[in-house]
Amino acid sequence: MSLSDLLLRNGRARPGAGDAPDAAMEGYLGQVEEVLEDFFVASSTRGRDLTPRFAGLWDALRTTTAGGKRLRPRLVFTAWHGLGGADSTAAARVGAAFEVLHTALIVHDDVVDRDFTRRGKPNVSGLYLGQALAAGLPRPEAEHRAMSVGVVAGDVALLNAYRLLDRTDVAASVRSTLLDLLDEAVHASAAGELLDIEYSISAAGLQAQDIISMERLKTSVYSFEAPLKAGAVLAGADADIIAGLGDVGRNMGIAYQIVDDLLGVFGDEAGTGKSTLGDVREGKLTVLMSHASTRPQWPAIATHLGDPDLSEEQADQVRALLTEAGSRAYAEQLALSYAECAQERLLGADIPRTLSHGLERMLSAVLDRRR
Amino acid sequence: MSLSDLLLRNGRARPGAGDAPDAAMEGYLGQVEEVLEDFFVASSTRGRDLTPRFAGLWDALRTTTAGGKRLRPRLVFTAWHGLGGADSTAAARVGAAFEVLHTALIVHDDVVDRDFTRRGKPNVSGLYLGQALAAGLPRPEAEHRAMSVGVVAGDVALLNAYRLLDRTDVAASVRSTLLDLLDEAVHASAAGELLDIEYSISAAGLQAQDIISMERLKTSVYSFEAPLKAGAVLAGADADIIAGLGDVGRNMGIAYQIVDDLLGVFGDEAGTGKSTLGDVREGKLTVLMSHASTRPQWPAIATHLGDPDLSEEQADQVRALLTEAGSRAYAEQLALSYAECAQERLLGADIPRTLSHGLERMLSAVLDRRR
Hints:
2 copies of one chain form a homodimer. Chain A has 17 helices and 2 strands. In chain A, strands 1-2 form a two-stranded antiparallel sheet. The first copy, chain A, is globular, with a radius of gyration of 21 Å. The two termini of chain A are 19 Å apart.
């Protein structure tokens, strides 16, 4: 039985409730792609006028932004559409702004994590690393230059995410609220990144809740809470509904993050596009590991964490130990319980049915995703 | 004879022309300090609500922002005051926004340059490096964590510089023009940083003009052109005057940068607060070096460039060789000629006398500064 089946069984949701606004969603996502395309073409031209190198930077940012799941625009749309929003041009621009923000934050996060790939392909720094190595630079120097370009790339992406939102054609008060949401999301993400850096120095005594709080700040606020609230703001919703969607987003985002951590160890490599050895090799701090650290299997697991040369066989051992320790079941149960909280909040009286149906579908997708 | 004496002799400027608006300037700079103080206190409180670590980050940013020459606010004020501007509250906020922008850009520039000190004190990353080393981290790991915190710090400073400007209480069209100026300045700085990274990989065939263009983009646009134009925009000046001040700022900024490069090799250590060995030890690319590279003294100079263990005695040798090669005189002449261009533009008919007098004084200060 899948996690979303459990959600259905435990909760009060009805399968298939409401017609999926798939055509409307697809149309909207097409608009988002157009906004992004126009934005990257204009940025590249503008960059080239300053120095040809800059056009290349924008091309790298465009590549990084392309082909995502468009999770944030989907959330903007779902909230906006479910609340009877009318101006899809503005909604598409807001969705695009969140995608550019996402690019900015992952580019800098990859600098912090010293990652040169994402989803199995070179990231912005990775593209420049290749060039620097080809130019004959020794590897440490080449890596530093590539990371430096990543710092610059994230900066311009961050500023432009704000600018995209700032120049959305909406009433001044709506614009101001949207900018506040983006601002709060960036500050939350910075706080999460700081905690992540701190925990990577010393993880002693960390509880699952500490890790969940860190991941929520770093990723969920800007990826779930803010897009949902932004969609509601655009649709002219009441403060209660906006706050309610923030609660839904927080719980949905945490569930998403825990599923992400599960996929990072147990997911199939083809599906996620990232090596499922990665999280173990880098010793990533997750609720799985936090749970396992209190179990008798821990010493056997811990020897493999952070081993960059971990073999497939050793990874299988780690997976078996995490399952045996009950850590896998614990994390699955935890993801489910956050999804249930989201569902509970969705069924509250103030959220219109059309919207709660759309979000329930997204919630099931969050639990069942394979990548 | 100092460079500014030469400027007076060659140009048409009159020494002591116009009364210095010192009291007004000091009053304005006091307002800027108040805006900055309020901003950092509010940011620190806001950060603490997310995680205590964040308050520390803001304290580090405040320390980095404190005690500068307030060059950018001085330029905003000079343009604004010289053009009859009335609302000093808005002008102080704009000056403060440029100082926060400056902090954002130098924090990230220090990450790119792997510098942990600025003006002889630990910078943002330097403060965290000390903490990470004290926590027992091996040096490479500690450096990376410290740099990572620098990335986050620059991000929030950058966003907040834009927000400070965005929330200035001025007419919508003025606000929009000010934001465009900041946006252009950030993009110019990013372009300059990209060129700097590129040149640090391969400096073959670089001309003085290439270095000047890079330094202009990286530093002068946001430090001179944009603040002068912003002051004029705030004062409600015509497009001609705004563009004219952009020209003045470009030439003044380039002169400033060349003087900076001279101070970086010949300046007295007590005055600049940075070791004058630094530029030679890191092999910094400057017009001095570009000129020297075509002279017979070059091989003897080049052996010392980028030597982290350069002694005082060897530095004296480099200074003597640069003087003998005519590179020092060349750079001084170049700075003077850019200052003359600025002066020439200032004497154009469209810039009011009160303003040109104020800027002439700043121009002399740029040429004669010792730090």
